[in-house]
Amino acid sequence: MDSRSHTHVTAALRLCLHALLAGLLALVVVRAVGEGATDTAAVVAVTLLTAALYAAGAARSSSVQPKDSVHPTDSARPGTSVQPGTRAGAWWLGGLWVLWAALLVLSPDALWVAFPLYFLQLHFLPMRWALPAVVVTAAAAITSFVVHRQEIEPGAFIGPLIGAAVAVATVLGYDALFRESERRRELIVELVATRADLAEAERTAGTLAERERLAREIHDTLAQGLSSIQLLLRAAERSLPENAPATPHVRAAREAAQANLAEARSFVRALTPPDLEHGSLAAALERLCARTTAPELTVRFAVSGTPVELPTPYEVALLRTAQSALANTVRHAEARRAEITLSFMDTSVALDVVDDGRGFDPSGAPVPERGTGGDGGFGLPAMRARAGSLGGALSVESAPGQGTAVALTLPLPLPDTEAERAA
């Protein structure tokens, strides 16, 4: 049930409780007047005082709330003086009990008022005080019956005790149902929020994946083509005599290709992941380690060798591989320590992600077929596909209980100067 249905149900229960108490008090008055007892006036006076006190408290009480949500020492809320779990509520309930006890002394019929008192005690007092109060109320009702009737009957004990048991079971059952409904409501709210976050994350991931794909395609096609054109024009320019009529045109074409190559590379840089927009790959990996959190997990980052400038697709592949491997460590490895090492060597660059987690069997991980793309995917198959698209290799070493080591190795591209000399 939602909060509105809870309000409707508790409002109906409150009305029933009001009617029950009013009816039982009226019964006490009618019986006293009908029997013509000598203390009829006192019975009527105490009954009216009890009804007035109850009506005053009920009029100032707000909607019913679970009693455990407010500590008994908390003050009443503004605008109300009788609230479940407050001092005012406890004093009000204590006054009702004292008047009822006085009514018990005057009339044996007042013992039936104990039943609505059970519910009031269970509602206005914390459970550690409500149960003893219910026991005391039941004992007072039994004592009143025995004193007034001057006899001991099983019904004198069974009736109040059964009433107390029913009241306790009803209140506890209702509280349990309400707490379960609240837990389910909170779970639904959390699921809705999680679904919205997941949709936003998927949109962001799709956008980033498309940006990476465009950057890779531009670098591998337009940029490489313009670079080749520039090298060929440079070679043609060197082979032409200085005063040849075609030399200025070849030089202008080479400069145009060079300018367009710079524009293409600038466009590729604009499409790189946000982590690579501000700072180097090493700085992005260091930030990744710093923001990766898990219980009892320590992540460290180190750089080996002399860093060199890498093409954007290389940096994207290395960063995405580190993110995916570290995410697997957080989700599945239950590791205490993880290390990311970026190594620059003479002809290659390597990324190692090592953890001391529970490990797994690498032979059970699927391997993508030749030609499959790793555009924005996650997991070992995507990492292997991304490495293969750049001419590199991904290796995974792991065993159950022995941790996991993921290593990505990419060959360093030839610098432009070397490529020019080769041309």
Describe what is shown at a glance.
The protein has 423 residues and is of the alpha+beta class.
Task: Tell me the layout of helices and strands.
Blueprint: H1 3-35, H2 40-60, H3 87-106, H4 114-124, H5 127-149, H6 154-239, H7 247-270, H8 274-277, H9 281-291, E1 298-304, H10 312-333, E2 337-344, E3 348-355, H11 380-389, E4 393-398, E5 404-411, H12 416-422
Parallel strand pairs: 1-2
Antiparallel strand pairs: 2-3, 3-5, 4-5
Any overview of this molecule?
With 423 residues, this protein is an alpha+beta fold. Strand 1, helix 10 (312-333) and strand 2 form a beta-alpha-beta unit. It contains 12 helices and 5 strands. A 5-stranded mixed β-sheet has the order 1-2-3-5-4. The radius of gyration is 41 Å and the shape is rod-shaped. Mean pLDDT is 76; it is low at 1-5, 62-81, 366-378 and 417-423. It starts with a helix and ends with a helix. The longest helix is centred in the middle third of the chain and has 86 residues, at 154-239. It has helices spanning 3-35, 40-60, 87-106, 114-124, 127-149, 154-239, 247-270, 274-277, 281-291, 312-333, 380-389, 416-422; strands at residues 298-304, 337-344, 348-355, 393-398, 404-411.
Stretches where pLDDT is under 50 for at least 5 consecutive residues are: 1-5, 62-81, 366-378, 417-423
* Biggest sheet descriptor: 5 strands, mixed
Radius of gyration: 41 Å
Q: What global shape is seen?
A: rod-shaped
Residue share in β-strands: 5-15%
Strand order within the widest beta sheet: 1-2-3-5-4
Average predicted local confidence, pLDDT:
76
> How far is the N terminus from the C terminus?
77 Å
Number of helices: 12
Order of helices and strands: HHHHHHHHHEHEEHEEH
Indicate the structural class: alpha+beta
**SS elements, strand count:** 5
Fraction of residues in helix:
55-70%
